[in-house]
Specification:
Distance between the termini: 83 Å
Shape: elongated
Largest sheet: 6 strands, antiparallel
Number of strands: 26
Radius of gyration: 39 Å
Structural class: mainly beta
Length: 480
C-alpha cells in the first residue's frame, strides 16, 4: 500500500464502520460539537479552529470520498459519515485538510488551526473578575488579552492567570480605566527636640485620626482609642501611622515658634508602576583612583549627591488604594569626618534615610519619624595667657557644653490626579490689571481696582485659594 493510501481514508463503507467505533469517544470529548458547513463555491474554505486536546465536528454539504491531512501530528481527522468529519487537536500549530469528492475532484481545503483551550481561561477570568471587560483570543500559538481593567493589580492578575495556560506566549493589549497618575506631596521637617524643653512645650504632642493617635516624636507615649482632645498622654509608642487631619497646620504653628524647620516640600507625579525622583541639594567632587592599561594609576573625579532627596514608585490598586515604595533621604556635608588622600581633603556625609512600602488611600497621609541626630559642642572662653595658668586659670575661663538633638519627620500624602484644561488653572498674575496714571499717582494704588476680564475661570477640579483679587489675595489652588 502506498504512503498516500495510508493517509487517505478509503471507501465510504469503511468510513462508516470507523465512525461507529469513534462515535462514543466523540460524544465524551465534545458534548456539544461545533458544526461548520463548507461551500462548494471555492476550493479554500478558510480556517477551522480546534482547541488542543479537544474535538469538533466538521460537516460538508456534499458527499466526499477521500481526505488528506497535511500533518497528522497536529490533528487527527476521522470520517463519521460521507458528509461529517471528526477532528481532534493534538498539538499547537496549523495544518491543511484536503477533501476530495466521489469523482476525485477537490471539494475544499481547510486550514486546521489548533489553538490553546481558552474556554477554561475565560470562565476563570469571569469567575474572579465578573465586573471587568476582558476579551480572550488566540492567534496561532499565543493568547491575546484585550479590554479595559479598573486597576493595574487586577490587570497583572489576569496576565499571570493567562500565563498558566500559555507560559511565555501571552500578549497583553489591555488598557486601564480611571486615573493612573499619582501625585505625592511630601514634607521634610526637622524637629528640635531640645527646643521643646526650652519653650516649655509639652513633648507629648499627638495628632488624632478617628481612634488612632500618634506622637510627633518617636519614643514618646501615645494613647489610642480615647475620644476627645488631640493632646493625650500615656499608652504605647509608634514611629509612624496613617492619618487624615490638619497635621500640616500643626507643623506650621511649631515652625513659627522655631521648633520645626521645613527642609523641602516636593510635589512629584508619576504613572502607576514608574519611579519619580527629586533632589534639592548639590554634588561635591570625590577623587577616585583607577588603574591604567600601563599598570599605573590615575585619579579621576566623581560627584556625590547630598541634600534632600526622594524616590517613590506608586502602584494604583483597586478601590482607590495606592501602594507606595518610598525612599526619602536627607544628607549634609560633614567636615568632621573628612579624610585626606594624597593631599586632598575629602569631606564625609551625615545621612538619614528611610525605605518603606505602604498602602494608602487617595488623600491619606503617613508620617515617618525616628531619624535622630545629636550634636555635642564644647566651647571654652578665656583670657589670653591667664586662662592657661594651672589652678588659677580656671578663674579666667568658662566652659559651655551645648547639646542639640533633632529628629527628621517626613509626611507623605498621595493623590490620584488627572490632567486638567489650561483654563482650569491660573497664575497669580492672571487677574492683575496695571494701574492707570490716576490710580498710581493720585490714588496711590499699585494695581487697578478693576479685574481682568480675560482671567481664566475655574472648573470643578480646582478652585482659587480664597482672598482678594490681584496680587494681594492668597495664591494657589485647592484639590477637591
Amino acid at each position: 500500500m502506498s504512503s498516500f493510501s495510508k493517509v487517505v481514508f478509503g471507501v465510504l463503507a469503511g468510513a462508516i464502520l470507523l465512525g461507529g467505533a469513534v462515535l462514543g469517544f466523540a460524544d465524551s470529548a465534545a458534548a456539544q460539537p461545533t458544526i461548520t458547513t463548507l461551500s462548494d463555491k471555492s476550493s479554500f474554505a478558510g480556517d477551522f479552529e480546534i482547541p488542543v486536546n479537544k474535538s469538533q465536528i466538521l460537516k460538508v454539504d456534499r458527499a466526499f470520498k477521500d481526505i488528506l491531512v497535511g500533518n497528522p501530528k497536529i490533528a487527527d481527522v476521522l470520517p463519521l459519515t460521507n458528509r461529517t468529519l471528526y477532528i481532534l487537536g493534538k498539538e499547537l500549530g496549523t495544518t491543511s485538510l484536503s477533501i476530495y469528492g466521489t469523482d476525485k475532484s477537490l471539494l475544499a481545503i481547510v486550514d486546521l488551526v489548533v489553538t490553546h483551550n481558552v474556554d477554561g481561561l475565560k470562565a476563570k477570568v469571569f469567575e474572579l473578575f465578573p465586573d471587568e471587560k476582558v476579551e480572550v483570543r488566540t492567534v496561532n500559538d499565543a493568547i491575546v488579552l484585550s479590554g479595559a481593567m479598573s486597576s493595574g493589580a487586577r490587570l497583572q492578575s489576569v496576565v499571570e492567570l493567562a500565563e498558566r495556560f500559555a507560559p511565555g506566549k501571552v500578549t497583553n493589549m489591555m488598557t486601564l480605566t480611571g486615573s493612573q497618575q499619582v501625585m505625592l506631596a511630601v514634607r521634610f521637617a526637622e524637629v528640635k527636640r531640645t527646643a521643646f524643653k526650652e519653650l516649655g512645650i509639652n513633648l507629648n504632642v499627638l495628632v488624632r485620626s478617628g481612634a488612632t493617635t500618634f506622637s510627633l516624636l518617636s519614643g514618646l507615649p501615645v494613647l489610642g482609642s480615647i475620644p476627645g482632645s488631640g493632646f493625650l498622654n500615656g499608652g504605647t509608642s509608634l514611629v509612624g501611622t496613617a492619618y487624615k487631619g490638619d497635621f500640616t497646620g500643626l507643623l506650621d504653628a511649631l515652625e513659627q515658634k522655631g521648633v520645626v524647620k521645613t527642609l523641602a516640600e516636593p510635589n512629584l507625579i508619576a504613572l502607576s508602576g514608574d519611579t519619580a525622583s527629586f533632589l534639592a541639594g548639590g554634588e561635591f567632587p570625590i577623587p577616585v583612583a583607577q588603574n591604567t592599561s600601563g599598570g599605573g594609576s590615575t585619579i579621576t573625579i566623581e560627584f556625590k549627591e547630598f541634600g534632600v532627596s526622594l524616590a517613590f514608585t506608586p502602584t494604583v490598586l483597586s478601590d482607590g488604594l495606592i501602594s507606595l515604595d518610598v525612599a526619602p533621604e536627607v544628607s549634609a556635608i560633614d567636615n568632621t569626618t573628612s579624610v585626606q588622600l594624597n593631599g586632598l581633603l575629602v569631606p564625609g556625609l551625615t545621612t538619614r534615610r528611610a525605605h518603606t512600602t505602604i498602602e494608602l488611600r487617595d488623600g491619606q497621609a503617613f508620617a515617618i519619624a525616628g531619624l535622630l541626630q545629636s550634636e555635642f559642642k564644647d566651647n571654652i572662653d578665656q583670657l589670653p595667657f591667664a586662662g592657661d595658668v594651672p589652678v588659677l586659670g580656671a578663674l579666667f575661663r568658662s566652659s559651655d557644653y551645648l547639646r542639640n538633638e533633632t529628629e527628621l519627620v517626613i509626611i507623605v500624602t498621595p493623590y490620584l490626579v488627572k490632567p486638567v484644561k489650561p483654563k482650569d488653572l491660573r497664575l497669580s498674575t492672571d487677574s492683575f490689571v496695571p494701574p492707570s496714571d490716576a490710580d498710581l499717582f493720585l490714588m496711590g494704588q499699585p494695581e487697578s481696582p478693576s479685574t481682568n476680564p480675560g482671567a481664566s475661570s475655574h472648573g470643578p477640579i480646582v478652585s482659587q485659594a480664597g482672598g482678594g483679587a490681584g496680587l494681594d489675595g492668597n495664591i494657589g489652588h485647592i484639590i477637591k
